[in-house]
Design goal:
The complex is a heterotetramer of chains A (about 210), B (about 260), C (about 325) and D (about 240). Chain C is an alpha/beta fold and about 325 residues long. Chain C contains 9 helices and 7 strands. The chains are: A mainly alpha (about 210), B mainly alpha (about 260), C alpha/beta (about 325), D alpha/beta (about 240).
Chain lengths: ~210, ~260, ~325, ~240
């Protein structure tokens, strides 16, 4: 739990802060081309952050940070026969290694989503008010966020949080052949989990859209 | 592998994080300088290695880049779909999706995918070479490992990420178009017209410029961690992990600065 | 073997780069401003740019034909090349050359708002077909922008004027109201008692229309009438409830001939010149009188049952939201 | 009638399209120390893995403790595995656990053995001469010590079948002697069936009862040393140095 959560905090904070900055910067800049004023930027940004970019980017970061970590760990355990050693002593490697990470990943995904959205909104507010002179109150408005955004995002968090350790551990367990094998497994884990996050995100968003959530 | 002294204090952790970060950045800058120096000494250029790297880096990552891009475009359309439904402004779809894909989301996600696919693989490959003393063997043979191994990768990543982003943009828009019709039920022509009407050339070119810098950043980060590897299989795994994480941070930071400087 | 492999890699790398490069050129041509058709430029002088942005679309009757190339702030400087006139803001439009003949000398240029987000664009009413076409580089005068603030302001002015008029013409209005009251009463009764006759009355509709055309003249005058009526009822609402509840019926009926809803305020202003208002009231009185006489023209209000229902609904709605007459949606 | 702890009956194994075990016939007599010898890459490790139920033969059967192993029946597989102890070639010690936790790991997995784990761990570590190192990290130990930890972990649950893959690899002669002596003591105490794969012929000859020679994925000889001397196969004589 600690290694999935805390150690990702700085990383998530850093990337999400830059994401928040850039989104507000771009949104304001683009909006200035066509709109007379920037009042919708804040609410729309917060709404999008909560529903779309928050879960997705946090999951992408978790996939690189944690997915790669799990794959590296399980992969090196696989190539040094530790997994076999577990099997022969009747310890189920999935139960022993994956399940705790699975649970931790889901919980931390939700926590980091909240954290990430807060950081991004803080960074976005900074640039929105300082650079584009949007009123703080106008910017920090939840009028662009609905309860269904939150539910959809939470649902995404759970799904992403579950998918990442499974994919990562799977490629870790399939590692063969020394350090190069571990490297390969880690690469595969990152690519698979990144892609799966995007794919799942698309599916969930589409379904949510279709049902009007 | 020397373990850092375990300090549980928050400040200690904080300080250590920063010192490590600065060390890493410093080492990467040095690596960058060495790459440029080797670039100037053009006689180090190895044609076969370059073609191999171009192939491995470009052609092999094409499928994953295309797939990612298509879904990213689709995702952007669905995301803007919610606002379109709220406001009824269907013409905005093309503009929103086009701007997002060209200038920000496209380059970033293709870059992230590229760092996962190519950067991580590169770190693993170089790391294994370090662990098995192949780098030392090159040195003994009088070959400069930077010129022979790193420069072709560096160039190949920049060139290939540039072209892959160009291709990816197209597939992202196509994915968006299909989603527009299939999920949102809005005619594709409205979407395409929206893109064409929105004057997105500047965004498109900015995205490609970003791709060049992302390629360079991913190359340096992944080579750095690859050459740093110590401690066998576990070390390689760790290095790959560090490599993708640092690449992601680098991508987001570089992205921000390019956008701000561009506009 | 290794050579063979190398060859294959070279080909694939080459193919990828070629494909991407072609795509790149294609995309740049498509996204950029390199349309094959030639462009022409015309300038339009406005009082205010209304926050019009460079790159905003230019449309003729809603069809995009070009975009805003430049917005120059002249701030009252005189244009020596064009009869020394005072220019506040000069907007240079870049148009497809083939659209130039569609714009005539009396074309109206207006900065309008697109969509709910308030994106600005330039709308061109092409003008009279017989008039000569615009030429490259010609300078036009732009019409005042249509934005909500201005409409609101104009409405305020009109209400004031109407109030003054009402005070002056109390007797006339009393008559009008009486007439209208009778009319509505009678209409109700006719519908209830005499369903059969309604059909007959419908036949008289054409007659009414024709006579209206004769009486009121061309469409413009009708517009004036309508807009005046609208403004009138809006302001009367405060003091004269009964009138408000009746007037909209007629207003709405005449509304069918109103082509450009947005332009009513400007025209309403003209219409409020005293002499014309007096004439207007006479017209209304004549109309209501003849309607009240029940000489067949009642059909105008009773085209069919549907219109009658619509009118009732509209009346109720207007009672609650009188401002709807001023801010046409 | 002889009691067999394990039998590999006519088993073949294909990995990545290449035949790595070819119609192997291997029977392990109960209560004996068996030696598995052969050139590197001949298939010794694969055979040990198969005996440990970690590899399923592509063809043929594996019998352990007189029962045919069904690799799909996870419950009976668990049953069988609780009677097997393995020391892996690369030790496979869990680097996220301490020495004591590593040794105690097999005990924790078996509900019948969870009593007094710490005492059992202490005894096991005592017997390999590493008492008092329970709390150490694996990485803090030398290669020889790690190997002894691995042996302690394999033997701690007193399994009926004990498999050692290269117990002396890369160790100095003194440590090697100690380790082989350790294996002998363990076997004498528990009377279990032991299989050792090693290149250290001299020491195997002193310790083992029955020898199996593996060459190119085939078991070409099984028998005692005296039987080997009578073998007509040159390879057997070369490998066993007789």
């Amino acid at each position: 739990m600690y290694s999935i959560g805390n150690q990702s905090l700085v990383f998530i904070a850093l990337t999400l802060a830059f994401l928040g900055l850039i989104l507000v910067y771009q949104a304001s800049y683009q909006a200035l081309k066509v709109l007379p004023d920037l009042t919708p930027v804040g609410p729309v940004f917060i709404g999008t952050m909560v529903r779309v970019f928050g879960p997705t980017v946090v999951a992408l970061m978790l996939a690189t940070r944690v997915g790669a970590g799990i794959a590296a760990e399980t992969g090196s355990m696989t190539v040094t026969d530790q997994i076999e050693a577990m099997k022969v002593t009747n310890a189920d490697p999935v139960e022993y290694l994956v399940v705790p990470r699975f649970i931790a990943s889901i919980i931390m995904m939700i926590v980091l989503w909240v954290f990430g959205v807060l950081v991004a909104v803080a960074a976005g507010t900074l640039i929105g008010t300082l650079r584009f002179g949007i009123q703080l109150r106008t910017f920090l408005s939840l009028s662009g966020t609905t309860m269904s955004d939150v539910w959809v995002a939470l649902f995404k968090c759970v799904i992403f949080g579950a998918a990442i350790p499974i994919l990562a551990a799977d490629s870790g367990f399939k590692a063969t052949g020394g350090s190069e094998g571990v490297g390969w497994a880690t690469t595969k884990a990152v690519v698979h989990s990144l892609f799966t996050v995007i794919l799942l995100d698309f599916l969930i968003s589409s379904i949510a859209y279709r049902f009007g959530w | 592998m020397s373990k850092p002294v375990e300090t549980d204090s928050f400040l200690g952790n904080f300080g250590r994080t920063f010192i490590t970060a600065f060390q890493t950045v410093g080492a990467m800058t040095l690596l960058q300088l060495r790459i440029f120096r080797s670039l100037l000494a053009i006689k180090n250029f190895d044609y076969d290695e370059s073609v191999t790297q171009l192939f491995k880096i470009g052609v092999r990552s094409l499928p994953v880049v295309i797939a990612t891009a298509a879904f990213v475009g689709a995702l952007m359309v669905v995301a803007s779909g919610n606002f379109v439904r709220a406001t009824g402004a269907t013409t905005l779809i093309g503009w929103a999706a086009g701007t997002a894909v060209f200038s920000e989301v496209g380059p970033i996600l293709i870059g992230l995918m590229f760092s996962g696919r190519v950067g991580a693989n590169n770190t693993a490959e170089l790391g294994t070479m370090v662990v098995t003393n192949q780098i030392d063997a090159l040195r003994v043979l009088g070959i400069n490992p930077i010129g022979y191994l790193i420069v072709p990768r560096f160039m190949a990543m920049i060139v290939m990420l540039f072209f892959l982003t160009a291709i990816g943009d197209l597939f992202a828009l196509t994915g968006g178009a299909i989603t527009c019709r299939a999920v949102l039920g809005i005619d594709m022509r409205i979407y395409w017209q929206g893109i064409l009407d929105s004057n997105l050339l500047s965004e498109f070119i900015m995205g490609l410029v970003k791709a060049i810098f992302f390629g360079g950043a991913i190359a340096i980060v992944s080579c750095h961690w690859g050459l740093q590897v110590t401690g066998g299989a576990r070390g390689v795994g760790r290095a790959v992990n560090d490599s993708v994480v640092t690449s992601a941070i680098a991508i987001f930071m570089v992205n921000f600065f390019i956008t701000v400087l561009w506009t | 073997m290794a050579d063979e492999q190398m060859r294959r890699m070279e080909i694939k790398v080459g193919a990828l780069i070629l494909f991407a490069a072609l795509l790149l050129v294609f995309a740049i041509l498509l996204l950029g401003d390199y349309s094959c058709s030639e462009s022409s430029y015309i300038s339009v002088d406005f009082q205010t740019s209304s926050d019009l942005k460079v790159g905003a679309p230019v449309k003729i009757s809603g069809v995009t034909v070009g975009k805003v190339n430049k917005v120059e702030l002249w701030a009252g400087r005189r244009d020596a090349a064009n009869g020394n006139k005072v220019v506040q803001v000069r907007v240079i439009l870049k148009l497809k050359s083939e659209s130039l003949p569609l714009i005539h000398e009396d074309a109206i240029f207006r900065i309008s708002t697109l969509g709910i987000l308030g994106e600005k664009y330039v709308e061109i009413s092409p003008g009279t077909y017989e008039k000569p076409s615009a030429t490259d580089g010609q300078v036009f005068d732009g019409a005042a922008a249509m934005n909500i603030d201005e409409v609101g302001q104009s409405a305020g002015v009109i209400i004031e004027q109407v109030s003054t008029l009402l005070a002056k013409n109390e007797q006339t209005i009393q008559d009008t109201i009486k007439g209208l009251g009778q009319l509505v009463d009678r209409a109700d009764r006719v519908i209830e008692d005499n369903q059969e006759d309604v059909r007959e009355l419908v036949a008289n509709l054409k007659q009414l229309s024709a006579s209206m055309n004769v009486a009121i003249g061309d469409g413009k005058q009708i517009n004036e009438t309508i807009t005046s009526l609208k403004s009138l009822s809006g302001s009367i609402d405060r003091g004269l409830q009964p009138l408000v509840s009746r007037l909209p019926e007629i207003a709405n009926n005449l509304d069918e001939t109103l082509t450009e809803g947005k332009s009513f305020v400007g025209e309403a202003r003209d219409a409020l010149k005293k002499s014309e208002v007096a004439k207007l009231f006479e017209d209304i009185r004549g109309l209501t009188a003849s309607l009240a006489d029940g000489k067949g023209t009642l059909g105008a209000l009773l085209k069919d049952r549907e219109i009658y229902d619509d009118l009732i609904a509209l009346m109720k709605d207007l009672k609650r939201h009188p401002w709807k007459l001023l801010l046409k949606d | 009638m002889l009691q067999y702890a394990a039998q590999i009956l006519d088993a073949s194994l294909t990995l990545n399209d290449s035949l790595v075990l070819d119609q192997v016939f291997l029977q392990l007599e109960s209560g004996r120390i068996h030696a598995l010898v052969g050139a590197g890459g001949s298939g010794k490790t694969l055979l040990l893995r198969m005996l440990a139920t970690l590899l399923q033969p592509s063809k043929g059967e594996l019998h352990l403790f007189k029962k045919a192993i069904n690799f799909r029946d996870l419950k009976s597989l668990r049953q069988v595995r609780s009677n097997i102890g393995v020391q892996f070639q690369n030790l496979a010690l869990f680097d996220f656990l301490t020495v004591g936790q590593n040794v105690g790991f097999p005990l924790e997995q078996d509900s019948e053995l969870t009593k007094d784990i710490s005492i059992q761990v202490k005894t096991a570590l005592d017997s390999v001469g590493l008492d008092g190192r329970q709390e150490h990290a694996i990485s803090a130990l030398s290669g020889g010590m790690q190997r002894r930890v691995a042996i302690a972990r394999a033997a701690v649950a007193k399994p009926k079948l004990l498999l050692f893959d290269d117990p002396s690899g890369g160790l100095d002669p003194v440590t090697t002697s100690r380790i082989f002596e350790l294996i002998r003591t363990i076997q004498e105490e528990n009377d279990n069936t032991v299989v050792i794969a090693s290149h250290d012929i001299d020491r195997l000859v002193k310790l083992c009862h029955i020898f199996h020679v593996v060459d190119h994925g085939k078991v070409i000889f099984s028998g005692t040393l005296s039987e080997a001397r009578q073998s007509t196969d040159d390879r057997v004589k070369v490998f066993l140095d007789v």
